[in-house]
Amino acid sequence: MSIEIKNVAKRFGGFVALDDVSVSIPSGQLTALLGPSGGGKSTLLRIIAGLERADSGRVEIEGLDATNLPPQKRNVGFVFQHYAAFKHLSVHRNVAFGLEIRKRPKAEIRSRVEELLALVHLEQFADRLPSQLSGGQRQRMALARALAVQPTVLLLDEPFGALDAKVRKELRDWLRRLHDEVHVTTVFVTHDQEEALEVADEIVVINEGRVEQIGSPDDLYDQPANDFVMRFLGPVTQLGDRLVRPHDLQIHTGAADPADVTGRITRITRIGFEIRAEITTSDQIVTVTLTRNEFLSLNVEVGSTVQVRPAPQSHSDTTAGDRSEILRAT
């Protein structure tokens, strides 16, 4: 394993940031630390980097006990949300900075920087100042600077959080492609569920200082360990006493089966190619997501009475007991 976090705990005064956290991160993998703000994910990342010291527990990087090592001895690259660029230095000099302080030969520095700027598609901006770049370009520059010293581990703390939605989407696609090229062990912090599901090989869900579940995006989405994970990773609605995904429900207008829930359509919202229908039953509002063609084939409108049922073999039929078994397995 590239990174082993064993029984790590951290308090800030009376606030418990991390409570006996243990995580194994395989070498070469892109892992997301996902959770709500204040859940402990950035604290864990900073402990891996050596920027925070754990109150107890152990951190190993590539088999080396790094628990008490300073950041410069851990061979990690760290990218902050707000880039931390040297404003008076060119893009080339920013990327070269870590190599220069390590006193590498000038020819080696020039070659490495040119290689990295080409990798992040910034070679034509080498002589510009950071202020002359867009937000997405500055973030790519920060990633190139972190990679320049050939770190064992690359750590990203909400790297796209300061960018608008379109640029964030472009950059996370780019990060996934970059990781597939360089294969450096990468850990990134995010509170964006879509970002984690789209980019990561594995997701560690952290809440209130504890690990809720670890698994692949498919595992966590289809087999959440508990209601928190289910609610946090993707949309949910309630049908009777069950939490289900809105796209795992069906609407029909025929005779009701015993397992069906009867209700009346009270709202219809189109979101791109999807139709979101709200069904008001005797005691709750159920949200169902359909494709536009599925919805049009029903020939219903606001006020129509319909039946709602889980779609066949829907993953969201996992019971609370099943979810607790999954949690114990992790």
TrEMBL record:
<dbReference type="InterPro" id="IPR017871">
    <property type="entry name" value="ABC_transporter-like_CS"/>
</dbReference>
<feature type="domain" description="ABC transporter">
    <location>
        <begin position="3"/>
        <end position="233"/>
    </location>
</feature>
<protein>
    <submittedName>
        <fullName>Sulfate/molybdate ABC transporter ATP-binding protein</fullName>
    </submittedName>
</protein>
<keyword id="KW-1278">Translocase</keyword>
<feature type="compositionally biased region" description="Polar residues">
    <location>
        <begin position="308"/>
        <end position="319"/>
    </location>
</feature>
<dbReference type="InterPro" id="IPR024765">
    <property type="entry name" value="TOBE-like"/>
</dbReference>
<keyword id="KW-0067">ATP-binding</keyword>
<dbReference type="GO" id="GO:0005524">
    <property type="term" value="F:ATP binding"/>
</dbReference>
<dbReference type="InterPro" id="IPR008995">
    <property type="entry name" value="Mo/tungstate-bd_C_term_dom"/>
</dbReference>
<keyword id="KW-1003">Cell membrane</keyword>
<dbReference type="Pfam" id="PF12857">
    <property type="entry name" value="TOBE_3"/>
</dbReference>
<dbReference type="InterPro" id="IPR050093">
    <property type="entry name" value="ABC_SmlMolc_Importer"/>
</dbReference>
<dbReference type="InterPro" id="IPR027417">
    <property type="entry name" value="P-loop_NTPase"/>
</dbReference>
<keyword id="KW-0813">Transport</keyword>
<feature type="compositionally biased region" description="Basic and acidic residues">
    <location>
        <begin position="320"/>
        <end position="330"/>
    </location>
</feature>
<dbReference type="InterPro" id="IPR003439">
    <property type="entry name" value="ABC_transporter-like_ATP-bd"/>
</dbReference>
<keyword id="KW-0472">Membrane</keyword>
<dbReference type="InterPro" id="IPR005666">
    <property type="entry name" value="Sulph_transpt1"/>
</dbReference>
<keyword id="KW-0547">Nucleotide-binding</keyword>
<dbReference type="InterPro" id="IPR003593">
    <property type="entry name" value="AAA+_ATPase"/>
</dbReference>
<dbReference type="Pfam" id="PF00005">
    <property type="entry name" value="ABC_tran"/>
</dbReference>
<keyword id="KW-0764">Sulfate transport</keyword>
<feature type="region of interest" description="Disordered">
    <location>
        <begin position="308"/>
        <end position="330"/>
    </location>
</feature>
